Here is the input.
Amino acid sequence: MAYISDMMSRPGGSSQSINTSASICGIEFCPLSENQESNVNLARPANSKVQLLAGTYTACALAAVLLLLTSLDYLPPRRQSPSSFQLLVETARQLRLPDQLLLLPLTVFSGLEQAFLVGDFTQAYVACSRGVHSVGYVMICFGACDALGSATFGSAVRRVGRIPVFVLGALGNLAMMALLVAGPPDVLWLHLVVAGVWGLGDAVWQTQINGSVKVENYRDIVNDLLLSYKALGCNMSLKIHFLHSHLDFFPDNLGAVSDEHGERFHQAISSMEKRYQALYGTLFPGKDEAAFANYRLWESVGFIIAFSYSTSLCTDIKLMILAAVLTLGMLGYGAIELRLHRKATTS
Here is the structure.
């Protein structure tokens, strides 16, 4: 798809790259500047090319939907969900919780950072200096690193905990903001490095803030599994009985736990379960609908804010806003982790 986008969006279908002065790109880029009006790299491709590219993307999307409809197994309906009005009320009530308020800046940043990369970085750095046709290759780097991070950060959290992964994501984003300020805006390596590290950071926010939690009928699923083991005459160890707590992580000395240590073992399992769930699932158990509705709401607010000032603010101001919101979000996250630590040590 990047190759198709490249060939369709090159000026006149040529493979020649048009160089633009770095003084009007990158940190100096202002959408309303008169200098940008004469920047041929930002010229809109012919309508026929835009329509052909949009049609190609639409066909791929429809093919993906068709593949899902024909390949996925049927899942029985979950318990009755609240009505739209009830969910709206629950979402508003959720804002009274201190933890929800502390999570708002980081949730808004999740929308801001995605909108910046898609709308501002690709315009101010990639398209401005190298042409619109180069955007596809840079976004491939972002998507590949995002996918890689999403697949690996789960196991990383199991090994080192959630805090180091969050700190790594924040430091990665801040480092790339500094590179965008100080680095040359018209070199390919900068575009690829920023896109790749930004993708890893986005993987942290998407998987660790808004990750999956256990399905509501997980007890029935595990109970069916245990009954199947019993019907087959299999001997069940203590590990099987605690599948509902965590499926793939147990202490090395689990076999030595006896009934006399039941309460201590239960507390350890409960602590592990909270440690490895996504943040929203950990903080708001039993309130999944309202919690994740708030996540989507405030992430969308981040998108709205970023795209609303995208055409009026210069790149340096946008980076300052991103850094400020990320810093505020990490302070809120730190306060949440501190409260959880104190709660765990006193219980």
